[in-house]
Amino acid sequence: MTDEIRRAIDAVWRIEQAKLIAGLARITRDIGVAEDLAQDALVAALKQWPEQGVPDNPGAWLMATAKHRALDLFRRRKMLERKHQELGRELDARQAEAVPELEDGMDDDVGDDLLRLVFTACHPVLSTEARVALTLRMLGGLTTDEIARAFLTTESTVAQRIVRAKRTLAEARVPFDVPRGEAFLARLSSVLQVIYFIFNEGYSATAGDDWVRPALCEDALRLGRILAELVPGEAEVHGLVSLMEIQASRLRARVGPTGEPVLLLDQNRAEWDHLMIHRGLQALDRAESFGGALGPYTLQAAIAACHARARTAADTDWTRIVALYDALAELMPSPVIDLNRAVAAGMAFGPEEGLQLVDQLLDNPALKNYHLLRSVRGDLLFKLSRYGDARAEFLRAAGMTKNAREKALLLDRAAKCGIK
To answer: CA 116 → CA 31, 191, 208, 322, 378, distances in Å?
Structure first.
């Protein structure tokens, strides 16, 4: 196989995999079987395309091949059932109907299949880790090795999560469909949570040697954009896309020449991606155009927009950011939101007020081991010229973080306190 053919097959697979699995899952009602059939189609392409060339419509070729293999699979199963009727006469109704359903649906458009796959992969019956792994595998097109490297775990761990997730979905008989009414909103919330979890791990890595992992941010953004096309009438979907676009616009400026972290107020704003900011602001306008109270992702996007619109750090509208955090805290109470509001209040009204708000959070058990609480407190103490106390807080924070780059930054800030 030539390198050109191999690259072509890899590119087609990356583009078509999610649609392929989604279409097959609609027919088979089983994500595990759908993935196996998609893999069979890929194997067929690897055998035939080097000899026959890449088809004009490779996605259609893969789908047709996989559907015919699905048809063969279900015919074999029906035959086995007939041969073993003496062992049990109860037939699975779904399996008995599978062949005519397959024959009738051979030429069906993908339609809502991708949306069904999104909602199934992010079903609340699965743990967060399982939802993330399954989503990246089925929709992001990542291999188990790529997922493992992104989350600093082993390939076998990720593979086990995916296998267990597919088994759980099958055993729970989770329907391959888009829920309606209140169930739709609950499941949509789970989908948005998974996508933003992936993005955040890329934007600010919790562990490892890298401060950011742009590839994960790109995967999350791609999923968010797909979701916005599939459900264009949901404000919070556009709010999340806006938030990710604006935050991702800063990725180049978030790291220095040797990979060291660069904090928001120290970033060179000329390095921000202004095309992404433009797209983010457009998505925010769309989210806000639905009217009514803003949701949590849209509120966070509005906060990010305050930074994006400021030509310099000094131009930032911190008073508006405080007000937006007030609305966010009322909608979704959280000590982390309270901490972020304290940072904004310190910028808007002075470090003394910010410190008072942070000190109210010191006894909160949810923040006991949260390194950013100590880091924020150290920053406010530094601004108040309480350098010894600031140094102690930066050292505490450095001892809590698992990210090597962040630890180095905090130790450096602690050392600078000693110079004062």
So the answer is: 11, 11, 34, 38, 47
